[in-house]
Amino acid sequence: MSKQIKDLKNSLKQLNEQQLIEEVEKLRRELFSLKLAVVSSPPKDTMQFSKLRKNIARTLTYLRDKQDQKMVEEVK
Q1: pLDDT digit string (tens) for 56-66?
Q2: Which sign does the torsion angle of CA 48, 51, 57, 60 carry?
Q3: At what angle do helices 47-75 and 3-14 cross, to 10 degrees?
Q4: Rg of the chain over CA atoms, in angstroms?
Q5: What pLDDT does 46 receive?
Q6: Which residue of 11, 15, 41, 48 pairs with 19 in a disulfide if CB–CB is 3.0 to 4.6 A?
């Protein structure tokens, strides 16, 4: 696993639920902008699409984990 991914995972663990939601929105806007940019000119790095999608999935996974932990704590 690359250092960038480890750093991203560590930073995502530190965020609260609202910050994770904002991060997902930011990443989705970035992906949308990238898709629009492709219409006008070919992308220089085609891997950006898959990297962004994976980062969105990672962020959503951490968000889901936070929500699950919150539900477990409420049940106790």
Answers
A1: 999 999 999 99
A2: negative
A3: 30
A4: 15
A5: 86
A6: 15
What is the pTM (predicted TM-score) of this model?
0.86
Please write the tens of the pLDDT for every residue from 13-56. Answer: 899 999 999 999 999 999 999 999 988 888 788 899 999 999 99
Name, in order, each residue with C-beta under 8 angstroms of 14's C-beta and a sequence gap of 6 or more. none
Specify the residue for token string 């889901």.
64
For the chain, first and last CA: distance in Å?
36
The DSSP annotation for 21-68 comes to HHHHHHHHHHHHHHHHHHHHS--S-THHHHHHHHHHHHHHHHHHHHHH
User: Where are the chain's structural domains?
Assistant: 16-75
Distance CA 15, CA 50 (A): 23
- Please name the residue that has the structure tokens 């999935």: 57
Tokens coding 20: 């994770």
User: Max alpha carbon distance in the chain (Å)?
Assistant: 54
